[in-house]
Amino acid sequence: MAQVLAVPDRGDAIAGTIIESVPEGWWYSTPLPDGRRVIALLTDADLLPAEAERSARWHRALEATVHLRTAAGEITVDVEPALHRADTSVLHPMVGERWCAIGDAAAAWDPLSSQGVVSAVLVGARAGRAIPDLVALQELESDVHLLASEHGALQAHYYGLERRWPDEPFWHRRQT
Ligand SMILES: Cc1cc2nc3c(=O)[nH]c(=O)nc-3n(C[C@H](O)[C@H](O)[C@H](O)COP(=O)(O)OP(=O)(O)OC[C@H]3O[C@@H](n4cnc5c(N)ncnc54)[C@H](O)[C@@H]3O)c2cc1C
């Protein structure tokens, strides 16, 4: 799950995307074209605090970061982050008679991979060329499944690089 807030960007030297791992998951921040900055905590659904405490815990967790808090600047604690799904998923079947799924509807990727936009564009372009050939669309579906298994291997590699919290559920699940 992603707990996401967009705040005015301080426009400081941290212009790019930042990620920072923490025991319960990892933080993500990137500037938006409209002068705001996204601040998000990615964790597992079962590790989220109860709804009544969720926003306050998010703010306290942000305060405890090393890098993200600098990029975020001052955020008033009454602003609540929105909750979004951010899990990896692959639809099956992805194609049928007179329909096919593309983009996030076909396959959604772990946000750490930054694979969402490029996959959506490439799969969408290929589906556009394949339509209405059902066989070609089914080949596309098997390629998306192949991509998903490569994604899984890459995901295991990157999550394996963080060695500080092997017993924390978020990391333990991804490192065994
Ligand atoms: C906070 C955040 C950060 C992300 N960062 C990255 C990143 O750094 N790199 C990366 O590669 N990916 C990133 N992603 C993922 C990426 O945004 C998606 O994987 C990608 O946009 C999927 O493209 P899509 O075309 O499937 O869906 P979308 O981009 O969501 O487009 C779907 C469009 O359909 C419209 N729509 C919905 N319902 C209807 C309807 N009924 N009628 C008409 N229109 C409709 C929506 O308004 C939307 O414009 C991020 C996602 C989030 C939420």
Per DSSP E runs of 2 or more residues, the count of β-strands stands at 9
Q: Structural class of the helices, strands and pairings?
A: alpha+beta
Number of helices: 5
How are helices and strands ordered from N to C? EEEEHHEEEEEHHH
Average pLDDT reading: 93
Count structural domains. Answer: 2
The backbone outline, from C-alpha atoms, is globular
Radius of gyration: 19 Å
Distinct small molecules: flavin-adenine dinucleotide
Neighbour order of strands in the largest sheet: 2-3-4-1-5
Uncertain ranges:
none
Mind describing the biggest β-sheet?
A: 5 strands, antiparallel
- Fraction of residues in helices? 25-40%
Task: Compute the separation of the termini in Å.
Answer: 20 Å
User: Which band does the percent of strand residues land in?
Assistant: 15-25%
Summarize the structure in words.
- This protein has helices spanning 51-63, 68-72, 116-130, 134-160, 169-175; strands at 2-8, 18-22, 25-31, 36-42, 82-84, 89-90, 95-96, 99-100, 107-108.
- 38% of the residues lie in helices and 21% in strands.
- Helix 3 (116-130) packs antiparallel against helix 4 (134-160).
- It has a five-stranded antiparallel β-sheet with strand order 2-3-4-1-5.
- A hairpin with a 4-residue loop joins strand 3 (25-31) and strand 4 (36-42).
- The protein folds into two domains: 2-84; 89-160, no CATH class.
- The protein is built from five helices and nine strands, in the order E-E-E-E-H-H-E-E-E-E-E-H-H-H.
- It is an alpha+beta fold and 176 residues long.
- The protein binds flavin-adenine dinucleotide.
